[in-house]
UniProtKB/TrEMBL annotation:
<protein>
    <submittedName>
        <fullName>CBCO1 protein</fullName>
    </submittedName>
</protein>
<dbReference type="Pfam" id="PF14769">
    <property type="entry name" value="CLAMP"/>
</dbReference>
<dbReference type="InterPro" id="IPR032727">
    <property type="entry name" value="CLAMP"/>
</dbReference>
């Protein structure tokens, strides 16, 4: 189902698509184990996508991406939410767990993800030989 949702069409031959499927599937199951509500699960998946998009599309450095995460997460726990912010639906404890998860799943492997998105790789040549 995740493969269809993410519109991954070359999963069997694309390392990038396989890694993206693993990233989002692992995040989904982690959030389910945390007993997030459906709205929280959606917000968490948006946050995973936000951090990955910062790296892949915006070419943000690790430091800049961490600053963006801090900015996005700073509204959590406040009584008045900023306009359009869905992240205040997490408790402080959940927010800390989310940050820990992002650190271990994405930020500790940032160089590998940068390589995945930004380095040119030659296509392997496969023949009958």
């Amino acid at each position: 189902k995740m493969e269809e949702f993410l519109n991954l069409t070359q999963l069997k031959t694309s390392l990038k698509e396989a890694i993206l499927l693993d990233y989002f599937t692992a995040g989904f199951w982690w959030a389910k184990e945390m007993n997030f509500s459906l709205i929280q699960l959606s917000g968490f998946m948006d946050l995973l996508n936000f951090a990955l998009e910062n790296l892949s599309s915006k070419h943000m450095t690790l430091g800049d991406n961490l600053k963006e995460l801090e900015r996005a997460m700073s509204a959590i726990g406040e009584t008045e939410s900023e306009e359009g912010s869905d992240l205040n639906l997490f408790s402080i404890e959940q927010a800390k767990a989310i940050i820990d998860y992002l650190v271990t799943s994405l930020f500790e492997h940032y160089k590998a993800y940068e390589y995945l998105f930004h380095s040119r790789r030659e296509e392997p040549v496969i023949s009958n030989e």
